[in-house]
């Protein structure tokens, strides 16, 4: 199985940039297609798609969210961070079955 | 707009089975695969498997292959997941999600509690 590693917690000040990383145990890219996706989950809610295929913003998601990366290293950036962004963020790969998720990064406000 | 409506919370006894539902609306049901995902309390997400509503074809995570059975009823645009031989480890929230290659839309989840 492809293991996705995320730092458990990230503390950022409001208005600053948050950079959340996800490292895969093997490449999740096929040719130029990066099969890594990002989700936001607020307490008591279901996850919501933020970024698909590493860098594509999902419909209705604010432009302060962006994604980058390829191969095994991926990043979700929130700039600037707002109070409404307090949540857990998960990466997920669809390169191979079983589909797997990272353990999640909780974004906290300093 | 796309909506996935899941069945309500269930309290079940160890060794029992539970069948939960996921009713889709706002799109053509057979156009998108339906995935099921488990989230144990305070923990991360685990993919259980998916079903293709058009063909009925399924793909399971090996970990859940003997535990979960995925079906659909095209006439009512509803996907079902049956979880069998329940133990305390199966207490969790179970989400359905529609997919075009990633988990585009998620249902609100069904909480399952296994307790005697």
Protein architecture, described:
The complex is a heterodimer of chains A (110) and B (116). Chain A has strands spanning 4-5, 9-12, 18-24, 29-30, 33-34, 36-41, 48-52, 56-57, 65-70, 73-78, 88-93, 100-101, 105-109. The model of chain A has no long low-confidence stretch (mean pLDDT 97). The N and C termini of chain A lie far apart (35 Å). Chain A is mainly beta and 110 residues long. Chain B has strands at 3-6, 10-12, 18-25, 33-39, 45-51, 58-60, 68-73, 78-83, 92-99, 103-106, 110-114. By secondary structure, chain B is mostly beta strands. Chain B is globular, with a radius of gyration of 13 Å. In chain B, 0% of the residues lie in helices and 53% in strands. In chain B, the strands form 2 sheets. In chain B, strands 2, 4, 5, 6, 9, 10 and 11 form a 7-stranded mixed sheet that branches. In chain B, strands 1-3-8-7 form a 4-stranded antiparallel sheet, with no helix packed on it. The chains are: A mainly beta (110), B mainly beta (116). The interface between A and B is medium-sized, with 21 and 19 residues.
Given as residue ranges, the uncertain stretches of chain B (5+ residues, pLDDT < 50) are none
Whole-number mean pLDDT of chain A: 97
Q: Considering DSSP H and I runs of 4 or more, what fraction of the residues of chain A is helical?
A: under 10%
Describe the largest sheet of chain B. 7 strands, mixed
Biggest beta sheet summary of chain A: 7 strands, mixed
Number of strands of chain B: 11
**Fraction in beta strands of chain A:** over 45%
Give the helices and strands of chain B as they follow along the chain: EEEEEEEEEEE
Order of helices and strands of chain A: EEEEEEEEEEEEE
Roughly what percent helix of chain B?
Answer: under 10%
Mean pLDDT of chain B: 97
- What does the overall shape of chain A look like? globular
| Number of separate helices of chain A | 0
Cα-to-Cα separation, first versus last residue of chain A: 35 Å
What's the overall geometry of chain B? Answer: globular
Tally the beta strands of chain A.
13
Kindly provide the radius of gyration of chain A, computed on alpha-carbon positions and rounded to a whole number of angstroms: 13 Å
Summing up helix and strand content along with how strands pair, one would put the structural category of chain B as: mainly beta
